[in-house]
């Protein structure tokens, strides 16, 4: 079914912290992107081992994979229009300069910790400035665009822009150690950890779906080897956000030197 924009996309984003543009990528583009991401998966595993789950930035590998499908994705008029209508005409996909491709692990199930991407306690973040930016629902915005059915991401709706609750802090701290478990036990244990976060929902993205979300909400990634994954992970930033991140990255680099 072709993608149709509606006011519900705006309502969902500003109420829940995320919205999904269902089937916004045409099938021909999904096909092209699958072709190049299959090659990218093989290549990054050859370089970094079977459990690697990310290639970033895609543009770094321009001499090794076909970049045209990524450019077609970045320039897709329906996608640009939908992002502008939810956020603002000033917002742009960062594209291949920052974009990642997210893959499934090859050998064992694995999950991240429940987290917010950046908080007032993150190194080199000014808490007062951050408090202003996090109240702006269009400031911190990320993307997961699925090329295969992707149920990896769990999210706590409307948790962005507000303080943590005690129960959220407690749930986050219960990340299990699954090193000694069988693959089946590890998968079940990780799933239990996903469910333990109050209010969490599992995002289901079908091929060609584009999830626009606020990464400062509580979220997690939960992965299994048998669930093939190739999901484009990107940012949609306005100039103020891009400038803020540039200053933050510079501060981190200076601290390391």
Show unreliable segments.
none
Helical coverage, percent range: 25-40%
Largest sheet: 7 strands, antiparallel
- Count, helices: 8
Please count the beta strands (DSSP E, at least 2 residues each). Answer: 11
How far apart the termini lie comes to 52 Å
Rg, alpha carbons = 18 Å
> What pattern of helices and strands is seen along the backbone?
HEHEHHEEEHEEHHEEEEH
Shape descriptor reads globular
User: What integer is the average pLDDT?
Assistant: 96
- % residues in beta strands: 15-25%
Structural class: alpha+beta
In summary, what is this structure?
With 257 residues, the protein is of the alpha+beta class.
What would you note in describing this structure?
The chain has helices spanning 7-16, 27-48, 68-74, 77-86, 127-134, 166-172, 183-195, 239-256; strands at residues 18-21, 54-55, 92-93, 100-103, 110-111, 142-146, 153-155, 201-202, 210-213, 219-223, 230-237. The protein starts with 6 loop residues before the first helix and ends with a helix. It is an alpha+beta fold. Helix 2 crosses helix 3 (68-74).
Main attributes of the structure:
8 helices; 4-stranded antiparallel sheet; 11 strands; globular; 7-stranded antiparallel sheet; alpha+beta; 257 residues
């Amino acid at each position: 079914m072709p993608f149709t924009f509606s006011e519900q996309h705006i309502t969902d984003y500003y109420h829940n912290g995320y919205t999904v543009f269902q089937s916004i990528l045409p099938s021909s583009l999904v096909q092209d992107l699958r072709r190049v991401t299959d090659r990218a998966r093989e290549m990054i595993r050859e370089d970094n081992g079977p459990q690697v789950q990310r290639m970033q930035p895609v543009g770094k590998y321009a001499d090794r994979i076909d970049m045209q499908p990524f450019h077609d994705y970045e320039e897709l008029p329906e996608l640009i229009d939908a992002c502008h209508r939810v956020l603002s005409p000033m917002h742009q996909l960062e594209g291949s300069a920052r974009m990642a491709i997210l893959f499934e692990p090859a050998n064992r199930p694995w999950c991240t910790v429940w987290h917010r991407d950046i908080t007032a306690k993150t190194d080199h973040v000014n808490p007062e400035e951050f408090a202003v930016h996090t109240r702006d629902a269009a400031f911190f915005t990320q993307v997961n665009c699925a090329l295969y059915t992707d149920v990896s991401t769990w999210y706590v709706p409307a948790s962005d822009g507000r303080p943590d609750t005690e129960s959220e802090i407690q749930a986050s701290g219960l990340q299990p150690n699954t090193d000694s478990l069988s693959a089946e036990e590890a998968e079940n244990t990780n799933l239990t950890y996903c469910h333990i976060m109050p209010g969490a929902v599992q995002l289901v993205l079908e091929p060609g779906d584009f999830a626009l979300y606020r990464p400062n909400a509580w979220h997690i990634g939960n992965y299994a080897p048998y669930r093939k994954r190739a999901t484009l992970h990107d940012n949609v930033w306005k100039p103020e956000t891009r400038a803020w991140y540039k200053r933050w990255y510079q501060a981190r680099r200076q601290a390391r030197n």
